[in-house]
Write a structure and sequence with these properties.
Elements: H1 8-15, H2 32-46, H3 53-60, H4 64-67, H5 74-86, H6 98-115, H7 131-144, H8 151-182, H9 186-191, H10 194-197, H11 206-213, H12 223-241, E1 253-254, E2 261-262, H13 276-290
Antiparallel strand pairs: 1-2
Helix pairs in contact: 1-5, 2-3, 2-5, 5-7, 6-8, 6-12, 8-12
């Protein structure tokens, strides 16, 4: 986890409409947006450890001192980078209903983390939020207004879903980083642990053996989607406890893969795919993004 010490007030100024380029002299060849875009490219291609003011300057073909005229340091640059990539997120429509809307937003976050895995390495507890981040957060809160949840519960639910996605993305990012560093895939690493398998005997760990023989390690379950639905199931129980019946009585949903209408079942959780084919396409897309 990277935690840079900077000036949060300067980040607020830069994110929320502060001065973005020097006011004197000829028209500058650099812009703040250009500096941020170059920094995002460095982090995407080389990892967060490679990110520095000097490396960004090299990528742009300018001196390091030139960058300091736009952004005071790496900490403020990271705040700007995070808000810049959040602009890629397509906001949910509150008419989706709270469950479909939260699922949609969670998948948007998941895909964002796959494109920019460095985001899970940035300490977020004291990162200054920018306008794109706040627009996204506003849209998510709007999904939960009318559920009967209190303001405190709405905030807790929104944070719960975000934290679930971040945790799942961090595990993928760590595995990818380990593979890049060692040149050994996760599957190859575990396959090589021959010395370990002899200790995991059936008489010593009968439950593990039973789950193993039952296909528990075959990897057929989409772990991210499975976990997301269980989180949403828990939230639905909370919503129902406040006198709401979930968003099944609202307008018909749409397939998250192709956008076609999805008929809502009379009982059980809402369907998210119009067909098995769309569900399989979504699974393959998430597998490809995480590979």
């Amino acid at each position: 986890m990277v935690s840079e010490v900077g000036d949060p007030e300067r980040s607020v100024e830069l994110l929320w409409g502060g001065k973005t380029h020097p006011g004197r002299g000829p028209k500058p060849a650099l812009t703040l947006d250009g500096v941020v875009a170059a920094a995002v490219e460095v982090a995407d291609q080389e990892g967060l450890a490679a990110l520095s003011m000097r490396r960004v300057a090299e990528k742009l073909g300018f001196t390091t001192m030139s960058l300091y005229r736009y952004v005071p340091g790496k900490a403020e640059l990271l705040d700007l980078m995070q808000d810049a990539v959040v602009a890629e997120v397509v906001l949910p429509d509150h008419r989706m209903g709270w469950r479909a809307g939260l699922a949609y937003s969670a998948r948007q976050d998941w895909e964002l983390y796959q494109r920019h895995p460095w985001m899970v390495q940035v300490a977020s507890t004291r990162s200054v939020p920018g306008p794109h981040y706040m627009a996204d957060f506003e849209a998510r809160l709007k999904l939960l207004v009318g559920t009967g949840l209190s303001g405190r519960e709405i905030m807790a639910v929104a944070n719960l879903v975000s934290q679930y996605v971040e945790g799942a993305a961090r595990r993928v990012a760590e595995a990818q980083q380990a593979e890049r560093t060692s040149g050994v895939s996760l599957e190859e690493w575990w396959t090589s642990r021959v010395s370990l398998w002899g200790h995991l005997t059936e008489d010593r760990y009968p439950t593990l053996a039973r789950v193993w023989m039952g296909g528990g390690y075959e990897g057929m379950v989409d772990d991210f989607e499975f976990g997301l639905q269980r989180v949403l199931d828990g939230i639905e129980m909370l919503v129902r406890g406040r006198g709401e019946t979930s968003d099944r009585d609202e307008t018909p949903g749409t397939c998250v893969t192709c956008g076609k209408p999805v008929e809502k079942p009379a009982t059980g959780r809402p369907k998210e795919y119009c067909s098995r084919a769309c569900q399989q396409r979504a699974y393959r897309a998430r597998q490809a993004a995480g590979s």
